User: Fold Lipopolysaccharide heptosyltransferase 1 from Polynucleobacter sp. UK-FUSCHL-C3.
Amino acid sequence: MSIQQLNPLPTVSPADQAPKILLVKLSSLGDVLHNLPIVWDLRKRLPNAQIDWIVEEAYVHLLEPLKTTDAFKGIDHIIPVAFRRWRKSLFSIRTWREFFAMRKQLQATTYDVVLETQGLLKSGLVCALAKKSNNAVVAGLGNATEHSGYEPLARMFYTQSVHVPLKCHAIDRSRWVMCSAFDWPLLNRNEESPLFYPNDFVAQLPPLLLEGLKKTAQGAPAPYVLCFHATARAAKRWPNENWVELGKALFSQGYQLVFPWGSPEEMKVSALIASQIPGAIVPRAFSIEEAYSLVAHAALTIGVDTGLTHLSAVLGKPTVEIYCDSPRWKTEGYWSKAIANVGDYKKSPFAEEVVQAVRVAKTA
Assistant:
């Protein structure tokens, strides 16, 4: 790995220290999920470390299953931040009161290591606000990867600027920064497959019984397939007619199709697609906490490159990820045989390719 060392600092030794570590990954849903493995990586090597994570308030629930308990050691403290909300009301007294409360939390602990895996100016600002020991290592991204947002000014707040390959999976990118900070050999994804959530967390999730969802004689949900068609960028969407063709094929196999949405416009698209597929439903809006249950009990999740599709992949559930206008190498699920990835940058897959991927994910 290539590291631009801004200040000569002593190497943090995991053998004789229990460092206090701050993880800075603020958003968004998929990015936070793909940063989870470094919590497990750190715990494996530094079981007595204090590990805190600062994250946008909307994504706190993604981290709560990894909070340290009597039976499990993961994240010690989750520090919520609300940059997205604050920027809409910069002159509000409440905004500044909340900002100073957040800063107080950041300065309640003296951190030995800060891992900034976002590469944005606002996440660099968080590094500056955090209280750090005299010899603290602040490691962050030294360059952009292709098709990723990056703000070079963030490097001003690092002591180590870590240069990663231009084509680097989101998980590997975080691991590069972590290994640089601790002077560890770069982790091999084949030897240390990423971990996300404890197995017992996934197993204990209750089903989410939505209106219109069919039930078995025992009252449990009948087999259903989640279809996440919506995404923030229109170019990443898969054509509606493909969803209809796929939905009809899955209906003929005994599945009920569910088309979630996140905005009024997306709900209209969900309704349009569902109206052409027998038995398909458009559910009510649901929270991230409810999304865990909905995904965990689905027979299969199919979706474009968006956070909720990645949630299914990190939960280890049968998943088909559809890439239309983003590169597969950046976020594709590679850690489970139950994950099938189709399409690629500027290579939207045909419906038959997705049908074949469904067979792969279902039989894994």
Q: What stands out?
A: Residues 208-363 form a domain with the Rossmann fold fold (CATH 3.40.50.2000). Residues 141 and 238 are 32 Å apart (CA to CA). Confidence is low (pLDDT under 50) at residues 1-12. DSSP finds 14 helices and twelve strands in the chain.
